[in-house]
């Protein structure tokens, strides 16, 4: 009567488990990277929508600007930063932002802007475009 497993059987189980863990680890890593980019796009989309609300509530123009690794909402008259979120390595939002126009746009207290803005959020091979029209419609493409 035989009890237990042979060394070859144990090694085979360990090898199969290692292969399965490697494959699932790669898939999980890809999903985490994708989720970070989508979360960054959600934050950028929310800030574009919030800029209109700030301009109306404060009664002063608000500038939307992408500066380096930050998306900023500033009071155009006073120059003070009202809201800022940082993106990129070392921050919780790990994505790259590219704005067009790169000078940003100004939103007036009536909710209209001096032009449209497009922000491309990219990272880990995935990119999403967030746009705001001059009339205040925010879309993700």
Ordered list of secondary-structure elements with their pairings:
Layout: H1 7-58, E1 62-67, E2 70-75, E3 81-86, E4 96-100, E5 105-107, E6 117-123, E7 126-132, E8 138-140
Antiparallel strand pairs: 1-2, 1-5, 2-3, 4-6, 6-7, 7-8
Describe the structure.
This protein is an alpha+beta fold and 141 residues long. The protein has a single domain, classed as minor pseudopilin epsh fold. Helix content is 37%, strand content 30%. The protein has one helix at 7-58; strands at residues 62-67, 70-75, 81-86, 96-100, 105-107, 117-123, 126-132, 138-140. The strands form 2 sheets. Strands 3-2-1-5 form a 4-stranded antiparallel beta sheet, with helices on one face. The longest helix has 52 residues, at 7-58. It is rod-shaped, with a radius of gyration of 23 Å. The N and C termini lie far apart (67 Å).
What distinguishing features does this structure have?
single chain, 141 residues, alpha+beta, minor pseudopilin epsh fold, four-stranded antiparallel sheet, 37% helix, rod-shaped
Please give the radius of gyration in angstroms.
23 Å
- CATH architecture type: 3-Layer(bab) Sandwich
Major sheet characteristics: 4 strands, antiparallel
Share of helix, binned: 25-40%
Number of helices: 1
Question: Care to give the gist of this entry?
Answer:
This protein has one helix at 7-58, and strands at residues 62-67, 70-75, 81-86, 96-100, 105-107, 117-123, 126-132, 138-140. It has 141 residues and is α+β, with helices and mostly antiparallel strands.
């Amino acid at each position: 009567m035989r009890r237990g497993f042979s060394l070859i059987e144990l090694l085979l189980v360990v090898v199969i488990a290692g292969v399965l863990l490697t494959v699932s680890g790669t898939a999980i890593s890809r999903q985490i990277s994708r989720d970070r980019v989508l979360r960054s796009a959600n934050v950028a989309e929310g800030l574009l929508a919030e800029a209109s609300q700030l301009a109306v509530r404060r009664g002063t123009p608000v500038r939307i600007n992408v500066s380096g690794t930050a998306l900023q909402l500033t009071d155009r008259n006073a120059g003070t930063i009202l809201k800022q979120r940082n993106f990129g390595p070392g921050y919780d939002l790990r994505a790259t932002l590219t704005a067009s126009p790169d000078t940003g746009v100004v939103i007036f207290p009536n909710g209209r802007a001096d032009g449209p803005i497009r922000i491309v959020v990219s990272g880990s091979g995935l990119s999403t475009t967030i746009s705001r029209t001059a009339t205040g419609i925010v879309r993700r493409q």
